[in-house]
Amino acid sequence: DIQVTQSPSSLSASIGDRVTITCRTSQTISRSLNWYQQETGKAPKLLIFGATGLQRGVPSRFSGSGSGTVFTLTINGLQPEDFATYHCLQIYSVPLTFGGGTRVEIK
Amino acid sequence: QVLLQESGPGLVKPLETLSLTCTVSGDSVSAFYWNWIRQPAGKGLEWIGRFYTNGTTTYNPSLKSRVTMSVDTSKNQVSLRLTSVTAADSAVYYCATGAAKYWGQGTLVTVSS
Questions:
Q1: How far is CA A54 from the centre of its chain?
Q2: DSSP H/E element including A74
Q3: Nearest to A43 among B46, B99, B106 (CB)
Q4: I need a surface site. Which of A32, A60, B20, B81 has the fewest CB within 10 A?
Q5: Which residues of B touch A7 (CB under 8 A)?
Q6: Which of 10-49 (A) contact B at CB < 8 A?
Q7: Of A95, A99, A101, Cβ closest to residue B60
Q8: DSSP track, chain B
């Protein structure tokens, strides 16, 4: 199984900050990684697919980068509605595996 | 746009079978392959397995002996069965399309006597 290590597990940030979250996989997965935002009590919402593709309707302040084993989600200019938990998911091989999640909190 | 809606009993007794349905609207169930994913309260996400409408399945090894996925094309639904449940199976259960692009809103299942 491919292990996915997500960091940090939580962070505090202010409105307008740039936030970076990283996922590392135990094997190379090309660009087969998605990023999700999950608000409390709701289902995960796809933000980034294929490591860098911005899902339709997602604000451009969200961006993804990386390939191989290291991937990054960046939020440029954090907004109030961005305070949530973020997850990465490798879809390269089954079993699909998630990172542990990153909770983004208000500083 | 594809909309997914999970449904099923919210409470299941220990050692019984959990049965959930995911109803698809906006497209045919046959247009996708399907995943089931779960999330225990306050914890991370766990992939349960994948189902292709040709009947091919791949399950998480940790659950493989207890999981069955199926499709009812006449109702545009996919289903999940998990046998011999314990409290550790209490979670919000989600269905999602093949590359996990579209997700249902999830359904909470509690295992308790």
A1: 12
A2: strand A70-76
A3: B106
A4: A60
A5: none
A6: 34, 42-46, 49
A7: A95
A8: --EEEEE--SEE-TTS-EEEEEEEESS-GGGS-EEEEEE-TTS--EEEEEE-TTS-EEE-TTTGGGEEEEEETTTTEEEEEE-S--GGG-EEEEEEETTS-SB---EEEEE--
Task: Please report which confidence band the pLDDT of residue B49 belongs to, taking 50, 70 and 90 as the band edges.
Answer: very high
Query: Distance (Å, rounded) from C-alpha B79 to C-alpha A32?
Result: 26
Mean pLDDT of A58-73: 98
Compute CA distances A72 → A44, B8, B12, B53, whole Å: 18, 37, 39, 34
Residues 6+ apart with CB under 8 A from A93: A2, A29
Tokens read off for A53: 């593709």
Tell whether the model's pLDDT for residue B54 goes beyond 90.
no
Q: What are A25's two structure tokens?
A: 């996989």
